Amino acid sequence: MAAEEALFSSLPRQIAVELNLQNDCTVPFHHLINSGNFLHGGATGSLLDLVGSAVFYTTVAQTRGLPLGINVSYLDAAFSNVEIDIGAKVRAVKAVGVATAELKKKSGRIIAQARYSKYIGASSRLKATLPCKL
Fold it and tell me: CATH topology for 7-119?
């Protein structure tokens, strides 16, 4: 994989992304690396949130929903010049959808795990009404 690209694939109910982390200003992902030369914790959470939310678009619940919560467990650090995999799977989709996401090193060691829940209820048929004029 070239340093300046991310590989993305999706199947029904799952998504996979590969990133190459490099602390080099010529690489688009260099801003995700902090001064300790590893993936910033906020970037880790944001990546898991993004992929966890996007995986719902591989199911029937494609256009509506409201995130209810995300729980992230940080287990290891991802230093620069490491390739990482981000994967997410939808576990259940009814009124509330549940997805899990993992950020791993190529060696298989888990960096962070997330559980994502999203409300996917029916959209309201009520029309918005304006208040009466005074």
Answer: Thiol Ester Dehydrase; Chain A (3.10.129)
Q: What is the reported pLDDT for 102?
A: 93
Model's pTM, two decimal places? Answer: 0.75
Three-state SS string across 59-118, please? CCCCCCCEEEEEEEEECCCCECCEEEEEEEEEEEECCEEEEEEEEEECCCCEEEEEEEEE
Provide the residue ranges of all domains of the chain, joining segments of one domain with +.
7-119
Cα 4 from Cα 72, distance rounded (Å)? 27
- What whole-number distance in Å separates Cα of residue 95 and Cα of residue 98? 10
User: What are the residue ranges in the chain where pLDDT is below 50?
Assistant: 1-4
